[in-house]
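Postdoc handover notes: sequence design on the structure in folder B. Input C-alpha cells:
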C-alpha cells in the first residue's frame, strides 16, 4: 500500500498509461536524504467505465419475438423481388390485354409496399407503439394473401401478355416472388405453428382466469341492519 506524502504532485503519463506521484524536497518525505522519489500506479485501476450500453435501446430487434433472422432475410428477398417485378411491369409500353397487366401491377406494388412496412414494424420497436397484440396472425394472413394473389396475377399475365421480354421477365420475377412468399408461410408454420391456435389458447386462458376469480359479494350484515 502506497501513501502519498505531503507536498506530492500528481502527473498523468499518457504514454505509459500510469499516474506518477513525485515528492519534491524533504518536507513530508519519509527519508530526508531523498529529494525526489517516484512510484507509478496503473490508471486502469483508478479510472473505470461508469456507464454500460443498454441493448434494449437498439432500433434493430432481429432476431425478435415476431421475426427471426431466416424469415427476415426471406422478407427482404420478397421486397426486392416485388420491386423488380413492379418496375419491369411499369416499363411495358404496349399491351394486348391491359387488364392482366394492371392486375399484376397492383399486386406487385402492394406486395412491395406492405411487405416493406411489415418488415420495418417487426424489425424495430415501432410495433410496440401500437395497440396490436396479434402480430403473428397479421403476418400469417398477409403473407398467405399476397402469395395467393401473386400466383394468380403471374399466371394471368403469363397467359395474356404481348410476348415482350419485359413482360416475360416480370412474369418470372412474379413467380419467384410467389415462391419466397410460400416459403415464408411454410417456415412460419414450421417454427411457430398455427397463429390461430395460439390465439384460441390465450382467449381460453383469459376466460378461465376470469371464471376462477370469484365475484365480489356485497356485505349483507351492514351496520344499519345490526342496529335495527
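Designed sequence:
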Amino acid at each position: 500500500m502506497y501513501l502519498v506524502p505531503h507536498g506530492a504532485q500528481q502527473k498523468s503519463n499518457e504514454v505509459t498509461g500510469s499516474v506518477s506521484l513525485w515528492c519534491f524536497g524533504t518536507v513530508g518525505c519519509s527519508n530526508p536524504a531523498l529529494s525526489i522519489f517516484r512510484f507509478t500506479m496503473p490508471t486502469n485501476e483508478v479510472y473505470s467505465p461508469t456507464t454500460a450500453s443498454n441493448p434494449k435501446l437498439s432500433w434493430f430487434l432481429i432476431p425478435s419475438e415476431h421475426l427471426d433472422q431466416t424469415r427476415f432475410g426471406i422478407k427482404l428477398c420478397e421486397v426486392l423481388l416485388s420491386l423488380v417485378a413492379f418496375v419491369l411491369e411499369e416499363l411495358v409500353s404496349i399491351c394486348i390485354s391491359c387488364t392482366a397487366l394492371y392486375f399484376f401491377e397492383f399486386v406487385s406494388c402492394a406486395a412491395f409496399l406492405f411487405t416493406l412496412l411489415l418488415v420495418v414494424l417487426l424489425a424495430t420497436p415501432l410495433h410496440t407503439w401500437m395497440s396490436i397484440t396479434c402480430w403473428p396472425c397479421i403476418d400469417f394472413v398477409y403473407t398467405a394473401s399476397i402469395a395467393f394473389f401473386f400466383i394468380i396475377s403471374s399466371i394471368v399475365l403469363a397467359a395474356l401478355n404481348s410476348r415482350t421480354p419485359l413482360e416475360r421477365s416480370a412474369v418470372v420475377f412474379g413467380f419467384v416472388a410467389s415462391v419466397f412468399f410460400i416459403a415464408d408461410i411454410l417456415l412460419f408454420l414450421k417454427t411457430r405453428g398455427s397463429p390461430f391456435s395460439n390465439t384460441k389458447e390465450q382467449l381460453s386462458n383469459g376466460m378461465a382466469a376470469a371464471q376462477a376469480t370469484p365475484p365480489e359479494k356485497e356485505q349483507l350484515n351492514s351496520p344499519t341492519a345490526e342496529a335495527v
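Context for whoever picks this up: Confidence is low (pLDDT under 50) at residues 1-29, 32-47, 224-228. Don't rerun without checking with the PI first.
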